[in-house]
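User: Could you check the structure of this?
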Amino acid sequence: MKKILLGTTALIGAATLYAGAACAGEDPKVTVGGYNNFEAGYTHSDFNNNEQNRAFRNETEIHFNVAGKADNGLGYGAEIDLIADIDGGDNSSSPGFTQSGIVAHRTYTWLQGDNWGHFEMGSNDGAARTLKVDASSISRATGGIDGDWKYFADVNSTTSGLPSGTGSGAAGAFGDPVGHFITAPDLPVEHGPTTGFSNDLWGNDNKVTYYTPRFSGFQLGVSYAPELANRGELTNRVETGSTAYSDIWEGGINYEGQFDQIGFAAAATGEMGKAPKVLSGTDKQDIRAWNGGAKVAYMGFSLAGSYGDWRDSTATEGTNTKADYWTVGGAYETGPFGASVAYMESKIKPTGFENKFKDVSAGIDYKLAPGLTPFVEYTWYKLDPSGAGTSGFSNKGDVVLVGTQLSF
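Assistant: Sure, the predicted structure tokens are below.
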């Protein structure tokens, strides 16, 4: 649900503010919004390490949106999303997971024109994530396969389910349980923990992004980031010896159309970037990855799916690694009620091994009052390595979430 509300902020939020801004020539206007999300979780897995099987989680953000319009028709503004939780949004106490920042989730400036499109400059999601279509695009509750179950799951954090000696490019690479870009679970640490589970950190490196206007249902977008490690005021320019990838280009094409009562959407997205040059040891391989997905909707029902391939991105130089994933899901919405179920499967094949990840997530939510949405979500996941030395590293588990989100 949070993903549905906030995942398209880069386009929908800015466009809405632009449309509702004051008349030409007036000072920019500031609006305040955000959300508070409370979750009660129950979890069980083969690798629970005698941990408690229950936990509460609270997530809060305050959003400041600025929008103005110049005399010449130029739309301009900014978005500042501040993390407002007790611990500052740092989930480092949970192995392998951190939020996007101690203070802010995203901060960026935007410019927009009716005829030439939309620019963003700052720390925000890039074009590949904004334009993508997959099964999580229609998931309810916390987002299904791209939901908050990952904060409660046991993810083999000490071994990542792999024996030693497989190469750091393969470590923890059970596959991306989110299934959308940025690409692989084993991207540099700026874009996700090596356990293979996503977090909110990976989308907000400093970048510039451009989106065309939508013509006949089509829209294109492209983003560029000089250095994945840079966020906010950071200006790291180290090449040799750095652990961060550089010269990251991502982009895609998205189509949306309505044919009588049938809605259709499709997208193709991709990413490429340079691997860091280490001072000692073996270099990693460049990022080369792509994703394609589609969605169809009819009278409250919707179906969506995707396929992605990140090949040998970030794997150790000289290794023969292959990795891909696919998603499929269905949803139904009528009035205040919504329900969905989605499936995601991914695998990575480092030399001599094959690691598979499977995830099924079903969710229900109900708009009890304006901005107030209770939800229930169930997720089953399985991590299944194969190859010499992997015996005993398989893991499967369940996560049940009950909670509510207040959006304002």
